[in-house]
Target: TIM barrel protein
Amino acid sequence: MPHVLDHIRVGSAPDSWGVWFPDDPRQVPWDRFLDEVAEAGYEWIELGPYGYLPTDPARLAEEVARRGLKVSAGTVFTGLHRGPAVWADTWSHVGRVAALTRAMGARHLVVIPSFWRDDKTAEILEPPELTAEQWGHLARGMERLGREVKETYGLDIVVHPHADTHIDTEAHVARFLDATDPALVGLCLDTGHYAYCGGDSVRLIETYGERLGYLHLKQVDPAVLADVVARSLPFGPAVQRGVMCEPPHGVPELGPVLEAAQKLGVDLFAIVEQDMYPCEPDRPLPIAERTRRFLRSCGA
Model:
């Protein structure tokens, strides 16, 4: 029997229901997502793309509460490596999401860097490597974001290394963490994205454990990933090929990741995010139920 991982709070997200956008006819309606995520046995959810779930705090609070759910975080996208010129637009976007996140009683804001190539067309939007000046903008910008989100909304930011962004590989993640103040900038480790980019999640937790503020649980299919790498496919088409697969059929093994996180001795959210955009509407619920059973078998 696995021992109980009592520091790990498991949830799921709209992403596991094939939701990537605030409004898209190929996505399940928000009320169906809420019904099914509760039915699958999850207690915690994320807001997903801002505007997918109702943005009126009173209505959202009612809808979530009557299904026995609670919100763990909101998500924002940022391009802070571009320097102070983008701050005003960034803060406008962040403010809307942070206000709703706080109103739901959540304490975390997941921050995803902007993509260097288009998620759908594969068009190269920017060089995949930042200059030294851009690294400086990124680090100082994230620290400013962390400070102002904390002061204004009482939330902690957790930066999410992500495929096709400038914070992706082990080297880039280490460089970013080394360049930022731990008091202002936490880490959201997404096990699937980190494996997709060649990283070792357990080693990251053991090396930078004091920075870990949040977990996203997903797995990569190694065979599909090898094809994605060989063809230099962008992330969107890679997802359509099934690169993110149902646990426990991929990598990394989630049991050891959860054990390493438990050893840190701090309470952590572990939110399941199985990228499936686009997907058939009846596909997510059975996968979500099986995944919840699997995580219970790991002690979570």
Q: What stands out?
A: The mean pLDDT is 97. The beta strands are 8-12, 44-46, 70-78, 108-113, 156-159, 186-190, 212-217, 219-220, 244-245, 268-272. Residues 132-153 form the longest helix (22 residues). The domain at 8-297 is CATH 3.20.20.150 (TIM Barrel).
